[in-house]
Amino acid sequence: MYFFDPMYFLIIAPALLLAFIAQMWLKSTYASAMKKPAPLSGAAAARHILDSAGLYDVSIEQIPGHLSDHYDPGAKVLRLSPDVYQSRSLGAVGIAAHEAGHAIQDAKHYAPLVLRNLAVPTASFGSGASWILLLLGMVFNFKFLMLAGIVLFGCVVVFQLINLPVEFDASARAKRVLVDLNIVPQDDMPAVRNMLYAAALTYVAATLQAVLTLLYYVMIYASRRD
């Protein structure tokens, strides 16, 4: 299996390098943005953005964890980590605005978000079951099991590809609304932009790794004899 195959790591090396660069950039820009003051806390900024969009029914909750921030479309809840919820910093309002952007996407039935939400169950199942089918297919030389595993992992790749425009659009909305609502002065926006660009790069790296992993699976399948 690819866990022990040097060829796998050779194939995904570009994605691993990109992920490392993205994580280092995100860590640096996040730390820098969290040190720069903002007029509102992350929670207050998110509430202002949601209310300005007419989303009074979307609640905001504080949850434990570091960078565990996310929007739950099923519960209509924006959940923020303690640092983001409480901090009056550019980093906090930037992340909060990004998550509020997902809530606005949901309210406007943004097509890629709708597709992503529909794909979540299949992608979740595929990420766990695909390698099991591939392993069984390789051990017993059942190419139909390997093909089934490839198809399932293909669903994961499709999910990752759909997720990219969702995340990019949420960041674009965040940058726009922070200025439009005077939450962040224009002169302070570079710190927010850099942090959101770094976060976006982590999604690109994850997608690239999924695509290259799928390529590896296809190569293994093609090399097997019936």
Using DSSP, what is the number of strands?
3
Order of strands, widest sheet: 1-3-2
Helix content: over 70%
- Number of discrete helical segments: 8
SSE series: HHHEEEHHHHH
Report on the biggest sheet. 3 strands, mixed
**Ends: how far apart?**
18 Å
What structural category characterises the helix and strand content?
Answer: mainly alpha
| Total domain units | 1
Report the uncertain regions: none
Shape designation = elongated
The percentage of residues in β strands lies in: under 5%
Mean of residue pLDDT values: 93
Overall radius of gyration: 20 Å
Description of the molecule:
By secondary structure, this protein is mainly α. The protein has one domain. It has eight helices and three strands; from the N terminus they run H-H-H-E-E-E-H-H-H-H-H. Strand 2 (70-72) and strand 3 form a beta hairpin. 36% of the residues are buried. Keywords: Membrane, Transmembrane, Transmembrane helix.
